[in-house]
Write a sequence for this structure.
């Protein structure tokens, strides 16, 4: 008899995306240095999302066969961070500035490293022609080895307890290390490079779905990295495999101001056969 395989995919459950309450913003020791948790891009309601997901993992511990976590992983110098860009006065753009292809053509914004000019012209043109996100400058976030890059405590503790209970190791998929392209989805960058395999399509998450009977999906943010990851996976799946996917809708939230994008994503995925449910309504086994 076939044993049902249940997997959990957690997308970018990192401190920089969670609205950590004041009393939880303690300092932590990292390489003997004191660091305070100060989220760069806190998503509204996300701390409650984290605690609901942690409770779900604890409650379903013996029924979960795989846990896969994607980690947004950037350098300070990144195409979606301020220091990558400057105006004619040498000033860097403020967070949430939109940079269009035309802005670069007109010289309103140029790459700080002028040798990247042809790249950013091609990059922004590609984003706009394919109907992807307009290039947006985010607060500097998820810098590798920073506190903001690490998994939030409630979810990390729940994963650790699951590992102890099941003797299974959770899997990490890192994305975003190439500073010259954005990498919202867990399968491939927005603008893959021929000479960088880490920006090209990675079949791991598609294979996870194909080898599972059920895949629960959580993480942050619903409007961006969760949406992109699920869209990238679904594009490679048959209708039968799409039916294996369930988004735990009470454990993920949109970036403030992007609620409509999240709603459109949910409507589109529901129409394709992806299920939406809350952690309290899930029965496994």
């Amino acid at each position: 008899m076939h044993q049902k395989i249940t997997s959990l995919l957690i997308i970018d459950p990192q401190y920089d995306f969670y609205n950590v309450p004041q009393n939880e913003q303690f300092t932590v020791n990292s390489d003997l240095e004191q660091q305070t948790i100060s989220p760069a891009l806190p998503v509204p309601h996300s701390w409650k999302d984290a605690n609901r997901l942690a409770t779900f993992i604890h409650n379903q511990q013996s029924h979960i066969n795989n846990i896969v976590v994607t980690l947004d992983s950037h350098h300070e110098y990144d195409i979606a961070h301020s220091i990558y860009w400057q105006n004619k006065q040498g000033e860097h753009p403020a967070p949430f500035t939109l940079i269009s292809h035309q802005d670069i053509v007109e010289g309103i914004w140029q790459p700080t490293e002028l040798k990247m000019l042809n790249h950013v012209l091609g990059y922004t043109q590609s984003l706009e022609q394919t109907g992807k996100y307009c290039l947006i400058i985010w607060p500097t976030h998820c810098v590798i080895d920073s506190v903001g890059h690490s998994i939030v405590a409630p979810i990390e503790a729940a994963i650790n307890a699951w590992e102890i209970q099941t003797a299974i190791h959770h899997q990490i998929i890192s994305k975003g290390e190439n500073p010259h392209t954005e990498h919202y989805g867990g399968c491939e960058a927005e603008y893959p490079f021929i000479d960088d395999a880490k920006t090209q399509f990675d079949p791991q998450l598609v294979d996870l779905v194909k080898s599972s009977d059920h895949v629960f999906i959580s993480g942050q943010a619903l409007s961006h990295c969760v949406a992109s990851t699920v869209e990238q996976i679904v594009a490679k799946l048959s209708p039968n495999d799409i039916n294996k996917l369930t988004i735990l809708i009470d454990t993920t939230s949109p970036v403030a101001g992007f609620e409509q994008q999240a709603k459109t994503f949910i409507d589109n995925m529901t129409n394709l056969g992806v299920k939406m449910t809350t952690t309290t309504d899930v029965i496994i086994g």
Summary: The longest helix spans residues 46-59. The chain has a mean pLDDT of 94. DSSP finds eight helices and twelve strands in the chain. The helical segments are 46-59, 101-105, 117-129, 153-166, 204-210, 222-234, 239-242, 259-272.
